[in-house]
Every structure is written in C-alpha cells, then in structure tokens.
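[agent] plan:
  1. take the single chain provided in the ticket
  2. run structure prediction with default settings
  3. attach structure tokens to the ticket
  4. add a short note for the reviewer (M.T.)
[agent] executing step 1
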Amino acid sequence: MKLLAAAAMALSFAGCSSQGESAQAPKVGVVQFAEHPALDNAYKGFVEGLKENGYDVEDGTVEIDYKNAQGDQSNNTTIAQTFVNDNDDLIYAIATPAAQATANATKDIPIVISAVTDPKTSGLVKENEKPETNVTGTSDLTPVDAQLDLLKQLVPDAKKIAIMYCNAEDNSKFQADLAEAKAKELGLDVEISTVTDSNQIQQVAESLIGKVDAVYVPTDNLLAEGMATLAQVMSENSIPLIVGEEGMVENGGLATYGIDYFELGKLAGKQAAEILKGEKQPEDMAIEYLPSEKCTLSINKTTADKIGIEIPEDLEGDATLVE
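[agent] step 2 finished; step 3 output follows
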C-alpha cells in the first residue's frame, strides 16, 4: 500500500510539473514597416499597453519578437511568414504595408494593427465597426479638417496649396482625398503631387517652388522618413509645410494638429491583452480611434522663424513648441 501511495504521489507531482512547463508566456511577433518617430512610438506605446494590462516583457509574462522591415515590402512579407512559421500567439503590425503583408500571410493568428488610417479601405477588415476577420486594432486617422483649418490660420493669404503623398500607400491616398475636399471648402486651389520612392522627394518638392503658397502632407510613411529632405526644400523657399503628425514637425515641418502615436500604441496593446487573455476575438472587436482630447497642436518655432510665419497668440498658447 505504501508503494502504491508513493507511486500515485509521484505521478501527481509529475502531472503538476508537466502542466507548469506547458504554461509558457505568449509570444507576440511585431512587424514595423519603417523607422520614424510615429511608428517607433506606436511600438513603444504597444509595449506599455501590454504591460498595463498584465503582460510585461521584463517579468517574462510575454515574449516579443520585434522586427523592422526598413520600408521594404518584401521584408514585410518575409517577416510575417516567419511569425506564421513560428506559430506566434499574436502579431502586431505597425503601418498599412506591414498590416497588409501580415493579413495575407495568415487568416488564423490574431492580428492587431496600428498606424493604419482606414482598415476597411486597405482590405484588412470587412467593416471597421465589426471586422469579421482575424484583424482588429487602432486607426491613425488624423483630424484632416482641423489640419487644413490650421494651414489657413497660419497662412491666411494662401490661394493654392499642394497635397503631397506617396501614391503607393493606400492610407495616404485616403487622407489626401479628405484634404482635397476640405481645401476646396476653404476656397483653396489644389495641386496633387505624388512620389513613388524616396529618390523623388527632392525633385517633386522643388517642382512646387513658385507654384503654391503652402504644402500639406498627411501621415505618409515614405515622406515621414524623408521629412528632413522635404522640410529643407520648403524652408529654403519659405513655403509653409503642414504635416500629419508630431514627428514630422520635429523633423522640420511647420505645424500639425495630430494624434499621439504612443497613446495609439497603448490602445492597441490593451486590445492585444484582451485577445491573449481570451476575453475577446478580433473578428468582433471594432477598430478604435483616439479621442479628440488626445490630439495635440505642435508648431516648429525654428521653422516658423526661418520662413517668416507669425504664430497667432491663441495658437502659440495652446501649442507644443518644437525648437
């Protein structure tokens, strides 16, 4: 009897050991399309959002495999397939090209996206309110109307503007259409200027000299990466450059009224935690947006001084000033 009892106890301990070993931390693959401040912050915020909801990399409650595609679509595809082959528990895709590559790679692994302007237009979900796919996440749809109003406030005599974006990015085209409609409401003539790769940025920017009174750039990944080049051309020719997000202002753009990508990432991290806990499924989770109070006015004071723009007192009092 003692031998039988000892054997039973040994089996019991063995079972507990096996269960403990199998309780591994969930693995999250992260693919970021390119390296620039907005997308970097969307990643940092995601990590913080996971931490605030019970998944901390430092204490081992989650494992993150972070990879940056460096703006190369083929890299997006390769990275996404790697995460699928590794059978990750969830994939976080930052920016539209990364999200599209990931969604094409798997229909089974939950995908949380961020920095995607309109997931439905990008073919990632059936409806933003109810995805009905393995994809959910957060949209970085910026307050385009407010940004064009800002342009008019800073450049009240403007008659014609250029809207510049990368024609290979669906999210940029979506915002450009909104901006064009708003500009026409404001009585502005519009010239659409597009680029396909970074080598065209300076040439296209220089082609606008003497033709427009200001330039508007939405949250475009290619132009965010090349903002230093674009801002230099605009500043040297005293052309105000209104942009889609704060990182672009920090890199030489004149001003924006935009969202906080760190907060956007935190919101995506909260969604990911709910999925990892089994509380929700992506197909039932609406795409989420930052509330208006999370939007911030940013003005580059150095750029404004260089091109001779006087910032109205009411705007300067409300703005985050970048030197």
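[agent] step 4 note for reviewer: DSSP finds 13 helices and 13 strands in the chain.
[agent] ticket updated
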